[in-house]
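Q: What residues go here?
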């Protein structure tokens, strides 16, 4: 297994110069399909228990609290695993790493379908969260290895939309399995696992390790892409002999820009889950929406953001990589939309700003994920992804669900409004700091 995951050696036979451009485009197409479809496979596995929770409670006799215990095992484990599994991706073949995590997730998902024991489910979900932590870091590292900064915003945004598409595909798989197997819960789990194993095979066939492993020049040679680190030094290295702890200390823990981007992402995650997780309760209790319509708005909130996120990513490319500037514009508009969402009683206005907020939240979330990767050398991308993911899930999501739930029960929905305003304001302040650094890096790059 370990040898299978090791980075592939550079190819001995090089692609002829006259064919480099066409081969690069062909390979990039396969790589983009592999990371997008591959990450959809991760979501098909990840959300099965969530989508089936009502039937599981009904058929297995579980309580809401017991289902919550199983789901919490994944949430806590996933936040921690992203930190470590993200770092390990820096020392691996990212394509095989992506496929391996999906294969392990699918096998563990088979186990979930084969048991009705609560404690076995909790253990399986905890272990699965470790395998799931392999996905995002591998995909984000692949984006850094295969695309230059000129097009990276659009490509990263297209990949990021796999989060939303994955939720839709998961529901489609559930509906198909339910129809084919007369509502059998085990069959739903098994079907999802089979679909994900097929996707894993596609990832291995369509994807690639670094460009140099298939005879192409590295992306740095091909496009002149380089990373300017916090100390102003340029680097284009894709691999390093530094140990994981050395990488983590030198390029993550002591990097002020990485910390600023990570805390921005954590704040935006708080806003994301602070809105999405409470849409049904908030709109029914505070705004008089029907429960059925409020449930639909959760899914629409997710899907409606996809076109806007891709457009914002392309705009950040058109602005020569000024990602923070795009994020600041989104957060300012987000604060305005939050005001309408909190204080308007007009249902049409509320639904409209809810759709708009999907883009205004997911676009900066996507771009800060790219920014934290661009703030470190390519051999530290997985570590930066894992570090940010840890804060997103352990603090951002937890504060958005547990803290808001407690505050609302004591003080009403005005408490939730205050938390979301505060998180948005913190993100805005941090983004201004990041923009100042972004301008400095751009100036240094122009001078050199």
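A:
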């Amino acid at each position: 297994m370990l040898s299978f995951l090791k980075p592939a050696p550079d190819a001995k036979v090089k692609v002829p110069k006259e064919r480099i451009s066409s081969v690069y485009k062909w390979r990039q197409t396969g790589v983009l399909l592999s990371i997008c479809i591959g990450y959809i496979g991760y979501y098909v596995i990840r959300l099965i228990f969530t989508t089936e929770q009502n039937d599981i409670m009904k058929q297995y006799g579980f309580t809401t609290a017991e289902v919550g215990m199983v789901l919490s095992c994944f949430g806590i484990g996933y936040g921690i695993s992203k930190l470590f599994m993200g770092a390990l991706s820096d020392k691996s073949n990212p394509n095989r790493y992506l496929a391996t995590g999906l294969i392990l997730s699918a096998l563990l998902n088979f186990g979930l379908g084969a048991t009705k024991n609560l404690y076995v489910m909790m253990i399986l979900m905890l272990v699965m969260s470790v395998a799931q932590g392999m996905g995002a870091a591998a995909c984000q590292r692949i984006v850094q290895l295969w695309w230059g900064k000129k097009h990276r915003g659009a490509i990263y945004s297209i990949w990021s939309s796999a989060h939303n598409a994955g939720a839709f595909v998961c529901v489609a798989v559930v509906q198909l399995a339910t129809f084919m197997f007369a509502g059998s819960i085990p069959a739903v789990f098994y079907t999802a696992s089979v679909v994900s194993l097929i996707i894993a095979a596609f990832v291995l066939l369509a994807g690639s390790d670094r460009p140099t492993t298939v005879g192409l020049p590295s992306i740095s040679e091909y496009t002149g892409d380089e990373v300017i680190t916090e100390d102003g030094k340029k680097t284009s290295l894709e691999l390093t002999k530094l140990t994981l702890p050395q990488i983590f200390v030198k390029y993550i823990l002591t990097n002020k820009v990485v910390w600023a981007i990570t805390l921005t992402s954590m704040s935006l995650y708080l806003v994301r889950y602070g809105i999405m997780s409470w849409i049904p309760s908030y709109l029914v209790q505070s705004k008089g929406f029907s429960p059925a319509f409020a449930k639909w708005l959760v899914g629409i909130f997710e899907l409606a953001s996809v076109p806007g996120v891709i457009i914002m990513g392309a705009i950040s490319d058109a602005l020569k990589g000024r990602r923070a500037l795009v994020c600041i514009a989104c957060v300012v508009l987000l604060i305005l939309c939050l005001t309408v969402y909190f204080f308007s009683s007009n249902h049409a206005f509320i639904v409209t700003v809810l759709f708009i907020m999907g883009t205004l939240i997911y676009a900066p979330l996507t771009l800060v994920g790219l920014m934290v990767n661009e703030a470190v050398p390519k051999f530290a991308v997985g570590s930066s992804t894992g570090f940010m993911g840890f804060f997103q899930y352990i603090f951002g999501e937890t504060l958005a669900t547990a803290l808001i739930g407690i505050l609302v029960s004591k003080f009403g929905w005005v408490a939730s409004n205050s938390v979301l305003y505060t998180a948005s304001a913190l993100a805005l302040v941090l983004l201004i700091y990041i923009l100042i650094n972004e301008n400095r890096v751009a100036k240094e790059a122009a001078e050199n």
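A: Context that may help when evaluating the design: Strands lie at 227-228, 234-235. Residues 257 and 437 are 8 Å apart (CA to CA).
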